[in-house]
C-alpha cells in the first residue's frame, strides 16, 4: 500500500494537538524554537525550509517530509528548488537518502495540486 503524505500530515497533526493539550509547555517551547529558527535573517524562511527538507530526507522522517513540502509550497518554492535540494541530499546521504528523496518527490506531487487550489 502506498502512503499518502496528506494523510500522514493530517494524522500527525491530530496527535500533535493531543501533545499540545497534555504537554503545553514542551510544545510551546518547541513552537518558539521553530519560529525563531525559521524567521528571515541572513537566510530567508524559504531557504531554511529547504534545509529542513534536506534534514527530513536524510533523517528518513515521512511526517517531516510532508510538513516541510507543505510549508515550501505555501512559501512558493519552485519544483526546481526542491529538486536541487533533493540532489544535494542524495549526494550527501547516498542510497538511503535517494530513496527518501523519491518519497519527497511523491509528497510534492501529491501536495502541489492542492496548494494551487487551496
TrEMBL record:
Pfam families the UniProt entry points to: CMD
Keyword entries, A-Z: Oxidoreductase, Peroxidase
Residues in Carboxymuconolactone decarboxylase-like domain copies: 24-106
Gene3D superfamilies: AhpD-like
Domain of life assignment: Bacteria
GO MF annotations, alphabetized: peroxiredoxin activity
PANTHER family assigned to the protein according to its UniProt record, in alphabetical order: ALKYL HYDROPEROXIDE REDUCTASE AHPD (PTHR33930), BLR3452 PROTEIN (PTHR33930:SF2)
Protein name according to UniProt: Alkylhydroperoxidase
Originating organism: Thauera terpenica 58Eu
Taxonomy of the source species: Bacteria, Pseudomonadati, Pseudomonadota, Betaproteobacteria, Rhodocyclales
Amino acid at each position: 500500500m502506498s502512503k499518502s503524505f496528506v494523510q500522514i500530515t493530517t494524522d500527525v497533526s491530530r496527535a500533535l494537538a493531543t501533545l499540545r493539550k497534555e504537554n503545553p509547555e514542551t510544545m510551546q517551547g518547541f513552537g518558539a524554537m521553530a519560529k525563531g529558527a525559521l524567521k528571515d535573517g541572513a537566510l530567508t524562511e524559504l531557504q531554511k525550509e529547504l534545509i529542513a527538507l534536506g534534514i527530513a530526507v536524510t533523517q528518513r522522517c515521512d511526517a517531516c517530509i510532508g510538513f516541510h513540502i507543505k510549508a515550501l509550497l505555501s512559501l512558493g518554492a519552485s519544483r526546481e528548488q526542491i529538486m536541487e535540494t533533493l540532489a544535494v541530499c542524495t549526494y550527501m546521504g547516498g542510497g538511503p537518502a535517494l530513496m527518501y528523496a523519491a518519497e519527497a518527490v511523491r509528497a510534492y506531487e501529491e501536495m502541489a495540486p492542492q496548494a494551487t487550489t487551496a
